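Troubleshooting log. The previous structure file for this entry was overwritten by mistake, so regenerating from the original sequence record. Sequence copied from the archived sheet and checked twice against the printout by T.R.
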Amino acid sequence: MIVQQVGENDWQLVQGVRLRALREDPDVFGAALEREERFVESHWRMRLRTSTTWIAVDDGGVGRGIVTMLQEPGSPVDDRHVVSLWVAPEARRQGLGWALLDAVRQAAEADDARTVSLWLVDGNHAAGDLYVRAGFTRTGERQVLPRDASQTEERYVLTLRSAEVP
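Regenerated output below.
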C-alpha cells in the first residue's frame, strides 16, 4: 500500500473511496451517502482544493483508505482537523490507519499546527483505540451528531511535539 496526497484531478478516486466508506460504515461519519452520491465533479474538485486528502492505494491502484485534514471554521488557527478517516475492511489491522494518521501529523507539523483534533462517534471503539494509541486524548467535549440527533460524538486532540515548550 502507498499513502499518497491527492489533488483535484484525483477526484474520481476520492469519490470512489469516500462513497464506499459511506456505504460500508454509514454510522461512523457525519455525512449521508444519499447526499454525497448527488455531488457532481465540481463539488469533489472543490473539496480537494479546500482541504488536504490522502488516499491509501494498493498495488492495483485501488483506494483502500482515506483521510482528510482541514482547518475547521471557528477553530483555532493552529489546529488541524481530521475528517473521513476510513480503511477498507480487507485492509484493516495492517497499519494503514497509522500510516494515514502519520501523513496528517507530518503535514500538520509542517504547517506549524499546535494540535490535531477530530470528532469520534460514540461506539466506534476500534477507531477510538487507534486514536488513543496514536497519542490523541479524549477531551470530554461532546456534541450531538449533526446528521443524527440520536447519536453523540466526542472530541479528541493530539498535541504536536513541535508545539511543546522546551
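The two ends are 37 Å apart (CA to CA). Archived copy saved in two places this time.
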